[in-house]
Amino acid sequence: MPLFGDCRKERSEAETSRRLKANDREFNLSFEYATNAIKTSKYNLLTFLPLNLFEQFQRIANTYFLFLLILQLIPEISSLSWFTTVVPLVLVLTVTAVKDGIDDLNRHKSDKQVNSRQVQVLIHGQLENKQWSDICVGDIIKLENNEFVTADLLLLSSSEPYGLAYIETAELDGETNLKVRQALTLTGEMGNNIQKLYEFDGEVESEPPNNKLDKFTGTLVHKEQKYSLDNDKILLRGCTLRNTDWCFGLVIFAGPDTKLMQNSGKTVFKRTSIDRLMNILVLWIFGFLAFLCLVLAICNGFWEHHKGYYFQVFLPWPESVSSATFSGFLTFWSYVIILNTLVPISLYVSVEIIRLGNSFYIDWDRKMYYPKNNTPAEARTTTLNEELGQIKYIFSDKTGTLTQNIMTFNKCSINGKTYGDVFNFAGQRIEITNQTEKVDFSYNQLADPKFVFYDHSLVEAVKLGDKSSHEFFRLLALCHTVMSEEKQDGQLVYQAQSPDENALVTAARNFGFVFHSRTPESITVVEMGETKIYELLAILDFNNFRKRMSVIVRSPENRLVLYCKGADTIIFQLLHQSCKQLMDNTTDHLDEFAGDGLRTLVLAYKDLDKQYFEEWQSRYYEASTAMEERDEKLSELYEEIEKDMQLLGATAIEDKLQDGVPQTIEKLSNAGIKIWVLTGDKQETAINIGYSCNMLHDEMKEVFVIEGNTREEVQEELRNARAKMKPETLEEEKIIIRQPMKKTRLLPEDTVTESYGIVINGHSLAHALEEHLELELLRTACMCKSVICCRVTPLQKAQVVAVVKKYKKAVTLAIGDGANDVSMIKEAHIGVGISGQEGMQAVLSSDFSFAQFRYLQRLLLVHGRWSYIRMCKFLSYFFYKNFTFTLVHFWYAFFSGYSAQTVYDEWFITLYNLVYTSLPVLGMSLFEQDVDDRWSLEYPQLYEPGQQNLYFNKVAFMKCVFHGIWSSLVLFFLPYGAIQNLVRDDGKDVSDYQSFALVAQTCLLLVVSAEIGVDSTYWTAVNQFFIWGSLAVYFTITFTMYSDGMYLIFTASFPFIGTARNSLTQPSVWLSVFLTTILCVLPVVAYRFFMVMLRPNFSDKLNYMISKSKKRPPPEQRRARLRRVSSRRSSYAFSHQQGFGALIMSGRNMRPRTAPAASSRVIDRSNTAAAAAGSSSRSANATMRNVIVDGS
């Protein structure tokens, strides 16, 4: 059965290049390329049973119990009936198989959901709807607006001019700004002509499948002409087509070969640290078991040689035994069977049930339910719950995980006055809530109904004709690269490169300055109901060095103006000296905005002299056509014309965080968890969010920025950062490097006294992740309180997680919401998916999912901590009770001639773990909690013991072993001494083997029941019912099985006739039971009492405080937004692509417009004359503009 669709066969060797022909499936099938189907499931109906059993028997414990079953079928060594092993083994295999089957069924459903999506495919000259899974390499498919890109496509044509298509790459790199792709002129001319597309037989040769998202190399050959292909002509799977009615594409890579899937990483079988510890302990127990059996086998050999040999008339040897040595050999295997309960198979059944129960708690938690999207929390994996209580590192995506992907115009400063806050009648600032009155924009027919603003004074200023306010919003309506589209109902829709631009233009629109449309030569704005057409003379485009953009326009009043917006640090250097006072006031406002975590932008303008501008234009033409130092000359001209500007004010945009993000990060940090943000966004954007959510703050001594372009530069920057934080670690590094390489080398925890942050760019991270630098990166980053990696690829996210896993003994968690986070989610110990705006790929690959980042604190601090505590208590108790149970056999061997006789009745041995002690320990493991959820969230420090693995480790296991040895000694010798020579009141003897076995097993059950009562701190009716019910069931079964009736019906199976009523009616027996229980439990109670009194941990202190206060924590108060006083202003994070302004000026991204009848109600006829008056000047500049654009 093929793994990926019907068109694929197993390829014998890796591809070196890819060749394909359009519309020629027969040719393409010869290369055996993958189809577009994906398959993540493991089984089908035929393979489920054999494959699942094969996987289960790869576990040491299951193979061990199968081996025991085989031993029990050999009469010479079997001392127990076969059913004592078969029943538990079958139960374990069945429960695990059902769980695995359900998990795989869910994978089948998710695969079917993706593969069944519909897309239009060009087949035999017609467009037909086909499923994604049916798409093959070389097919031509049609996509429509807002559809996901099906596979990696070569863009052939689109509805936009010049074959342009707009895509959103949020699932690939987390960015929500639109990106432009352009088809070749050859294919773009085909448009949506189906016949031409069907006849197209171009041949593509390209690079083989790889994970490089930003690179593509290939050629297209058509009619003996060769055309170059690059990344700007490729639509990648996972992108979304935006603002483009339709496009056609040729499938280059499909299914697992797409760049998205190549970045998804391999699915790793995840096991908890407790699972790994249990495997080690099981091996220890096997060694201990072998040692005990060897001791008893040697003792048997000596006993048979010195005593048994002479008593063969009374105790004959079996026919197969010819010597004492062989008898010892058989005894070894007999005791392997008897002592096998040191590693009980019911342990694994119980662990699965506990994990399943704790998973249901997550699914049922209403406090993690998001009603807005009707999304509950979901535990998609049931085997990792306790790992949630041990997280040390969290790796988080930014876009859609910490933020909502929503930009809102929040505040502004105009001419030294700030707007956006709401004040009461006393002049005091009040917090904005859902009940706060919103500004009514109904007077503006073109206003965006989704826009919300609360400060009425700004609307009043605009309505009253405040000159500064009008100029402020006029700038926002003119200085941008936004495209507008008018729907049939007259509604304006903006197509912006970045959400920041969209928010600013929308704000201007609502305050009465509506950007309506643009051509390469003009911008149409509706100002307070009056339509004005501005002649667009130049766009001085944004780049990373300038950090600003400007437009030069001529108004209908023939006013020549330069409008500029950009980062405050840049604009302030370009202002006229007369703006000094206004600049100081605006600076104060910027500090206030930055304190709220807002993204700020400064606006300025300059009136230009007509003669000067014409002279500047001629020099600009010369610079743009220069053969040498063109960029430098253009930059100088930009600087020249942008000098001596007049300050208008500043805007403050909120990149909306999800609710509760700063508080969640604060609590997780207080719990000792380190949070790293890994994002594909720009550095400035990532830093802004770091400050907004309080990962970065001004109290930090320094925030290091690593942005070297070579390996040597990155190494030097990392070492310099570490030298500032802790110089002595540089010397330690030399010592570590000189040491011989080990298979796994764990880095020490370096602590620093001050607080630091580090920001590292994607290109620098690529060098830092090299083998010789990864240790340097990790040591430096781990010294910092906050780490932000920006411009990282999906694969780099996984590599960062892998480095931490490799060198740190810590549990990692990755959380994200997009396809670009899948590889990181798979690589981490725990993967959490947020069902957000970027699709469901992250959720489908995750172990746990929910709708909001803030639920992470409850998942870890409540469910994770409880699950860890419950599992640790369960394991400690389980090992204790089974060591206690089993070692009684060991002591009994010294009094039974090492004959491999059991102490207890066979039925008690069978039912001990399955019936008598299973429910009480499950009750504790499902309901135990040291403190309730409110206290867990109020005191995050309670989480730290799990990170340090204090509750169950090798030391804790050894305590269980010694406790079990002590209890087994008491449980054997005290009943043995009590029963010996015991007679009833009527003088009849009680001291027989069966009476001793019954007393010993009754003592054992009461001791382990008392022990679980001591271990439990949270009592429920269920716990009480399970403990007392199990004891009642024991006595009921015991008196029933040892009755006359059962003996008469099943004589061979129930030989202990009358033992219960003969022994358990004696007061001396109950006295021995009482003393045994006291002697076993008293040391534990005394030890814990002295530990609480002399060395209490944080949980003990909190419980004492709770017991003294006798109350729950106070209800959580609504917390105001966390503010920071900042000297660093949050510079505007442009998301533009350089050169987009030139694209607009060229008109290549615009359709030829006809006069829209629907908009005649908006256009003011009084402006027709003004537009005509400006037409002559526009035509005079048209030639110059085209030269400038082409030259630049």
Structure commentary:
InterPro entries: ATPase_P-typ_cyto_dom_N, ATPase_P-typ_P_site, ATPase_P-typ_TM_dom_sf, ATPase_P-typ_transduc_dom_A_sf, HAD-like_sf, HAD_sf, P-type_ATPase_IV, P-type_ATPase_N. One of its GO terms (cellular component) is trans-Golgi network. ATP binds at residues 397-399, 501, 542, 565, 599, 679-681, 791, 797, 820-821. It is found in: Endomembrane system; Membrane. The structure is a single chain. The protein is of the alpha+beta class and 1192 residues long. Among the domains are: 135-264, Calcium-transporting ATPase, cytoplasmic transduction domain A (Distorted Sandwich); 368-401 and 657-724 and 750-861, Rossmann fold, CATH 3.40.50; 408-656, 3-Layer(aba) Sandwich (Calcium-transporting ATPase, cytoplasmic domain N); 866-1096, no CATH class. Helices cover 45% and strands 16% of the residues. The chain is built from 41 helices and 35 strands. It has a nine-stranded mixed β-sheet with strand order 14-35-34-33-15-29-32-31-30, sandwiched between helices. Helix 3 packs antiparallel against helix 4 (83-115). The chain is elongated and about 130 Å long. Residues 1-6, 8-12, 734-743, 1119-1128, 1130-1135 and 1153-1192 have low confidence and may be disordered.
